[in-house]
TrEMBL record:
SUPFAM superfamilies: PLC-like phosphodiesterases. GO terms for molecular function: phosphoric diester hydrolase activity. Residues 1-26 are annotated as: Disordered. This is PI-PLC X domain-containing protein. It comes from the Eukaryota. It comes from Lotus japonicus (Lotus corniculatus var. japonicus). Signal peptide: none annotated. GO terms for biological process: lipid metabolic process.
Length: 119
């Protein structure tokens, strides 16, 4: 498994630094990708903002850093707190990308229209 840096250093927009104890993110000999996305120390009051668009943007940034591989796991604090879809929407996005290349897993359902997939 490979993973990005946890804590504040791993939450900087546009960057997905490698965790020092992990093999490089783009090491494709490792089949699993873990994305850490939580503050050090955890701050419950700002987690709603963290789990909004910024989380999904980080997943895209880390996808690129991991050799165009989507995360298999995402770690967050206070997963139920968000503005919008939050960590649940992020997981739906990842599953959609992994299953059918769409931005939402619900677009992968049989009978979904091509317009439902906005990849």
């Amino acid at each position: 498994m490979v993973e990005n840096q946890y804590g504040d250093d791993g939450m900087k927009a546009g960057r997905c630094p490698n965790r020092a104890e992990s093999p490089p993110l783009d090491d494709k000999s490792k089949s699993l990708v873990l994305i850490n996305y939580f503050r050090t120390p955890p701050l419950k009051l700002v987690t709603c903002t963290d789990h909004s668009k910024a989380l999904i943007n980080m997943l895209q940034t880390c996808h690129n850093a991991a050799g165009n591989r989507w995360a298999n796991f995402v770690t967050v604090d206070y997963y139920k707190r968000s503005d919008g879809g939050g960590s649940f929407q992020a997981v739906d996005t990842l599953n959609g990308r992994l299953l059918c290349g769409c931005n939402d897993v619900h677009a992968c359902l049989p009978g979904s229209t091509p317009q439902a997939c906005s990849a």
